[in-house]
Amino acid sequence: MSTTELQANHAELMDGVYRWQRHIYDLTRKYYLLGRDQMISGLDVPAGGTVLELGCGTGRNIILAARRYPDARFFGLDISAEMLETAGTAIARDGISARVMLARGDATDFDAGALYGIERFDRIFVSYSLSMIPGWEKTVSAALAALAPSGSLHVVDFGQQEGLPGWFRTLLRGWLKKFHVAPRESLREVLESESRRTGASFRFRTLYRGYAWLAVVGRPVSTP
């Protein structure tokens, strides 16, 4: 199966999953998508900066980030047309459409210039999306390639629940599987490896006894 066919299949799957869920997504996910607000508060977007969210979903994170950083411009990418419809409505309702541009695309292989007319971003963040994306490692590489000099990539996602009881981990994994979600055991390793490859800095935190992992990869300032 070709890459294009895989992308089309994943897009169809996500549209099917979220065709109805999108209407209650934010109400239900706030109870177990932990660490998102810590990630947003740590973006530290420069004045007039550009911010891209990969897997923007309902637009919840972009809206909160846009409120916190009123001088920045925001861009959202998602493979699900259903989610983008919900995000566009929410963003318009919040009165920030002039500062937010959404596009449909695959986070593992996207052309920012063609989609947004901008090649590099000061901040890129991925919130609980890598655990849903086939070939998620390519998303990390693509995000780092789209960072401006001195920019940073921020990731929050499910950890391995290493400090929590085994029964909790078993129940959580079973529940997440119903939504095609799989916590990435090698997430830290991949982010660290990509940081070394690109000469970037790397910071990593475990949250809530390993329930969630929060990481920041900082691209160095380019040298002449």
Automatic annotation (TrEMBL):
The keyword Phosphoprotein does not apply. Signal peptide: none annotated. InterPro entries: Methyltransf_25, SAM-dependent_MTases_sf. One of its GO terms (molecular function) is methyltransferase activity. One of its GO terms (biological process) is methylation. It comes from the Bacteria. Residues 51-151 form the Methyltransferase domain. The keyword Methyltransferase applies. Keywords: Methyltransferase, Transferase. Transmembrane segments: none annotated. Pfam families: Methyltransf_25. This is SAM-dependent methyltransferase. It comes from Mesorhizobium kowhaii.
